[in-house]
Amino acid sequence: MKIPFIDLIKQYSLIKNEIDISIRSVFDKGVFISGKNVNSFEKEFSQYIGTKYGIGVSSGTDALLISLLALGIGDEDEVITVPNTAIATVAAITLSGAIPVFVDIDPETYTIDSTKIEEKITNKTKVIIPVHLYGYPANMDPIKQIANKYDLKIIEDACQAHGAEYKGKKVGSIGDIGCFSFYPTKNLGAYGDGGMMLTNNKNIADKIRLLQNYGQKEKNLSIIKGLNSRLDEIQAAILRIKLKKLDKWNNRRREIAEMYTHLIKNSVITVPKKAVFAKNVYHLYVVRTKFRDKFKSFLESYGIQTNIHYPIPIYLQTSYLDLELKKGAFPVTEKFAKEILSLPIYPELSNREIEYIINTINQFK
Predict the structure, then answer these.
(1) What is the percent of the chain with per-residue pLDDT over 90, rounded to a whole number?
(2) Looking at the whole model, is its pTM more than 0.85?
(3) Hey, what CATH topology would domain 8-243 get?
(4) 316-325: buried (b, 16+ CB within 10 Å) or exposed (e) per residue?
(5) So what CATH class is 246-363?
(6) N or C: lower Cβ tally within 10 Å for the chain?
(7) Is the sign of the CA dihedral 38, 43, 44, 48 positive or negative?
């Protein structure tokens, strides 16, 4: 049996008619930028998450960057986040001119360790970016308490957590701004790049709208320096179809995760734990083992494709050596980077395939 890490073709085949009709309707109308589908999807997604305003952009990276710019973040400002995240999180910080300040992760949730944030705050600190990694919500209450104490803003990196909940509230609606990516492999994925920012603050929303469209309040009237970063009409049309199915897809991910968690019985494999505050949407199902590379090769020999999220902490990447952080700076992150492995988890996996994966894992020695 061959099981890919993700199978986007299988998903498309199940919703092909709806998607094709939706795309054709865009071509029939001939409006490809800032049309009805974009406007409708912005409203529908913000309502789904539970915020007043939603602004679509070209990618999750742009969502993070524009959020920082909208909050006035720039040269020499400091932004607190984690070193075990997609490179985009930190790229957005550095592109804004700010300096990323890392906090190690909680060994139970793999998200930012809220007990270590306060010691990293200086008079240059302006923002905390908690990352809801792998679909798992960060522990937001203590983060909000710290932000309130030091008058900091919170930008939630929810790019991997569409529909995840923290104490009954969807992530992306808890901080000042929530950022999402619609990269094709996400729980809610487009067939290309796309992203969105959500907020309950009208002033922030208005600033974001200016920044993502050349700083223009109206055509040919630019009042601030801005970017060209817009969610296109075709992707919005696709995402509107998929949004209606997101809860069903997330529930299936949870079913698969429960099977993994309860049926993997291999003592050298550590499965993820659940916090009482979190409703995970399992964008990724990440296990750990000291024998990661051998385990990965073993699974691949049985046709099971896996991935690593993420093998190199950001401060050890060549592009970020200028931060002058040495090996050993964040021990939990570094330990886990050597042990983590992401198993296949997507709604279209059959129970037969899941059982095959589990049985194979239980044979590993």
Answers:
(1) 99
(2) yes
(3) Aspartate Aminotransferase; domain 2 (3.40.640)
(4) beeebeebeb
(5) alpha beta
(6) C
(7) positive
